[in-house]
Each structure stands twice: as C-alpha cells, then as structure tokens.
Specification:
With about 120 residues, the chain is of the alpha+beta class. Helices cover about 40% and strands about 20% of the residues.
Length: about 120
C-alpha cells in the first residue's frame, strides 16, 4: 500500500521506474527493505536523488541520507536544487527519492496490488 499511495506514478519517460519520494526516513527504509525482501532488488540497484533548497549543504545531506538508508554516497544521482525565491528550506535534509528501473519488478508490483485489492 505504501508504494500504491506514495510511489511515483507512470510517465512515458520513466516507464518502468519504481520510486518513492518522501522526507520520511522510516518510509524510505521500509521501501528499500520491501523491494529487497519481496522483489529481490539489491541495494546496488537503488538510486537516490535529493530535492534540496539552495541554502542546504548538499554534501552533508547526502551523508545524512547515506547513513540513514545504509547506502553508499555513490548511489546518489544529480540533486535537484529548487530555484531561489518562494519559501525557505522546509525540510533541513531535503526530500529524498529512492528508485530503480525494472520492467519485471514494476509489472509484478502492479500485479500484486491488483491481486490484493481485486473485487470478489
């Protein structure tokens, strides 16, 4: 249900990307453990992307998420830095997306969701 409610949805560009974007560390850890336990996704396959504000130290935030999620800093892709203006940083550690690409796993998750919630 976590992925169904909070996971990134289909786009033509990222057809088979399985992703969860949140500021909640426990939720991201659960997502990573769930994909490993039930879909055999290895930690090396997980890519992390930060959404941060200009005043946030990117290097420190990467270390923070790396420690929390027990994934190496090398798993991070390019961070998205929000444009200046508007609100100041709302989340001191930014917003983190954990994702991986797998057509097989993507289709299996959708199949599992449909199976779990099918009408009798």
């Amino acid at each position: 249900m976590l992925y169904w409610c909070e996971g990134d949805k289909y786009t033509s560009k990222n057809k088979y990307k399985v992703a969860l974007t949140t500021t909640d560390e426990k939720m991201l850890n659960l997502f990573i453990k769930w994909t490993n336990k039930y879909y055999f996704v290895k930690k090396e396959q997980i890519r992390l992307r930060l959404h941060i504000w200009p005043e946030i130290n990117e290097k420190n935030v990467k270390k923070h998420w790396s420690n929390i999620l027990k994934l190496p800093v090398e798993n991070f892709t390019k961070s998205w830095i929000k444009p200046r203006g508007g609100r100041k940083a709302k989340h001191p550690n930014g917003v983190c997306r954990a994702s991986f690409d797998s057509k097989q796993v993507f289709k299996q998750i959708l199949k599992d969701i449909n199976q779990e919630f099918k009408k009798d």
